[in-house]
Amino acid sequence: MTPSNGDKRLLANGDKRLLASIHDVGPGFESQVEQLCGLLERRLGGPRFAMLVVPDHWGRHPLRADQAFQSKLRAWSDAGVEMFVHGWFHRDTAEHSGAARFKARHLTAGEGEFLGLDEAAALQRMRDGKALVEDVIGRPAAGFIAPAWLYGEGARAALRQAGFALAEDHWKVWDAGSGAVLASGPVVTWASRSRMRTASSLAFAALARRVLAPMRTVRVAVHPGDVTKPSLIASIDATLRRFARTHRPSRYAEILR
User: Fold this and answer.
1) Could you tell me which of 35, 34, 123 has the C-alpha nearest to residue 85?
2) From CA 10, how far away is CA 24, in angstroms rounded?
3) Backbone angles phi, psi at 30, to 5 degrees
């Protein structure tokens, strides 16, 4: 039997993996998520990516109240898309000091929800999010990823108790229970909030396409706001196309094996 083009790509790419994800998935960004889904499916050869689900984005878009979007999530999950719990509100309301204040102000636009939570509050939101997402999709969530990839000490302690398989930040993916690092390296992502941030993210993506190819695992993350700027969509497309040639589009769960 002659291998299909998809099979040939899997054989050629060996054990190098491309992990792609769509962040901030929820009823408030339905059309943007659908647009990103189309782009990722075309470049990855199918639904070989993850979605990061926010149960109630900024307290304005409760997943629990939107049956139609729940049905879409279930269908995506049934098709093979991995579903991560991505905080609860995706909004940071805590007071910070020191290094945490710098992170809250400069690394995210008030969205580092789990940066300042204590252990009890973080654990409750993790468990509530896990229960909701798993009820919607009818299977275990793939893991937990904090909004803006920011974790305070309370969140890290809670994560070890919450029952998730995986977690990730900007620099690594790890076993949420044991803390063992499963993959390392920077995530390639984009920014749409300002021209300066957009320019810097485009520059980093261009650099990443040249220097990250030797890495065993490459991660690419996209956000709903990316669809507002053609330059970002073009860069995302070029980045996915580049890494799909050398890395097999994969599921996060595979790195647990």
Assistant:
1) 123
2) 29
3) -60, -50
CA 217 to chain centre: 15
Is residue 151 within 8 A of residue 170, CB to CB? The reply is no
- Cβ atoms 29, 224 nearer than 8 A: yes
24 sits in the region (left: phi over 0; alpha: psi -120 to 50; else beta) called left
Between 3-7, 55-59, 131-135, the lowest mean confidence (pLDDT) is in 3-7
Q: What is the pLDDT of residue 30?
A: 98
Can you give the pLDDT at residue 10?
Answer: 45
Sorted by sequence, the CB contacts under 8 Å of residue 123 that are 6+ apart come out as 158, 161, 162
Q: What is the CATH number of the domain that holds 243?
A: 3.20.20.370
The CA distance from 16 to 213, in Å, is 9
Tally of domains within the chain: 1
pLDDT at 67 over 70: yes
Q: Which residues pair with 218 in a beta bridge?
A: 18
Token pair for 255? 């790195």
Query: Chain-wide mean pLDDT for the chain?
Result: 91
Tell me how far CA of residue 85 lies from CA of 9, 210, 214, in angstroms: 30, 31, 30
**What is the rounded distance in angstroms from the CA atom of residue 145 to the CA atom of residue 157?**
14
Burial (CB < 10 A; 0-12, 13-18, 19+), residue 65, is exposed
Give residue 134's domain range: 5-256
Tokens of 216: 């065993």
* pLDDT over 80 (residue 14): no
State how far the Cα of 2 lies from the Cα of 142, in Å rounded to an integer: 34
For the ranges 13-22, 48-57, 169-178, 181-190, the lowest mean pLDDT is seen at: 13-22
